[in-house]
Amino acid sequence: MRARRLRGLSGRLLRRRRRRPAADAPGVLGLHFEPLAQYRPFSIVAPGFEQVDQPVVGATAGLHRSGISPTAPFAAIEAEVADLTDRFAFGLAGDATDPAAAQLLAVYDAHRGRLQLQLQCDGDTHTVADESVQLSAPCRLAFVLCENQVTVLAEDGAGQWSALLTERDRVGELIDLRDPATLHGLSYAWGAPVDAAPAQLGQVRAGPFGYTGLRDLHLVQYDDGRPYVRDGQAYLTATCAGMGFFHAAHWGVFTLDLVDSTSLRQVAQLYSRRDGLLLGDHAGQIVVEDSSGRCLVGVSAWGDFGSPGSQVHVRQATTTIDVLSGVHVLDTEPVALPTDVGAWDPAITRIDDRWHVAFVESPSQGDPFDFHPALAVGPAGGEPFTDLELVGADTDLEQCEGPILQRVGDDWSLLASDGRRRAYVAYDLAMQRRGGRLDAPYGSNIPHPQLVPLSDGGWWLVTFDGDQFAEKQLGYGTHGDVVVMRAEP
Predict the structure, then answer these.
(1) What pTM, to 2 d.p., does this model score?
(2) Among 200, 324, 414, 473, which is most exposed with the fewest C-beta within 10 angstroms?
(3) What pLDDT, on the 0 to 100 scale, is given for residue 96?
């Protein structure tokens, strides 16, 4: 993981003094959390997932097609450009022998100081975005595809990237890169336009897009609630923030070293296939069933949020342990939750032989955006997500999400994040609000209260904040920093 410099929590959090809870405070409300670390995960091509990695490409006449296609429309190319005296192009291109083949290229013209996004389809070439940009060689450039949104970036020489151009609507009007047949007809490409001088290139890397930040971190766990830990590494799922709004994000699996809270490494890329499209559904949990070894997946259908007729809902799949490493496209189906409104953020645990499913219930995803925590439970000895009945929902809250089913000692709680009151709230398994709140600093956005037990009896609270990347160009959705707090034994 390429991360920005480790820093302390924001001044707002550091200045916030909190009183210790009473010594007899029950369960999770008896923990006292202090700031430990904050850092920014950021990666263009996801480390360890490279499909193309050429250290020195050299002179490239014409457009070189790699013949390697992205698995899903969440892909990136990074190129070191040694010479910018003419034109350089990179992106995705189809078969060179087919004049009707699609191609989607970022083209920089050094003579004119123009950066264009050119889309060729059905025999026509369209300039879907055009910016005045002055670049000087040597430089590193990046082409990023997140769903149908394309962003071109430049690196400043010190590892910091800036967005130069982005476009989604005009791309999506002409071609749908979520369509597997369309996407898999394209491959990573780089070089020079046919009538331009050869491009002088250093390293070229391409593969699955990484993340502008991480959010919605949720422990991978056994069905009884124990964290899934291997060789001192806890496994978590996280939403990989993309170059845009919720449609631009996708899902991944990460390991976290339980000795070093800043050692977070991605081990799996997870995408969804539904309604004939490849999507970046995210915000969910994976549970490993101890008896069978199968993995239960619950995920939120954010991948087509805002599309006509779509409503955010919870989906599920049953798969193998392999889903915790590598690249996977999940075939999911809707969960029959006991609600007739929108839902997301599933949390799944078997408690006393009954599956408990916490989720966010949302009567409105418009204006206002209204959502609150809810809990459902299945019958004794039943299957996951089957015959669920509603235990309760806290309809008094309007901006509360990120439910976590958490055991501390012998006590189970449902934790959630109340953005309106800026606090982590707790419920018992009857969905009765516990008195008080989790004693932990509350940052920006609506950070989820994921607790991680440590071998010394202490706890980490691993969450995120609302810090955006290139918000002026890309808008909301590119957050956040990873925030870690600690409670002593």
Answers:
(1) 0.94
(2) 473
(3) 87
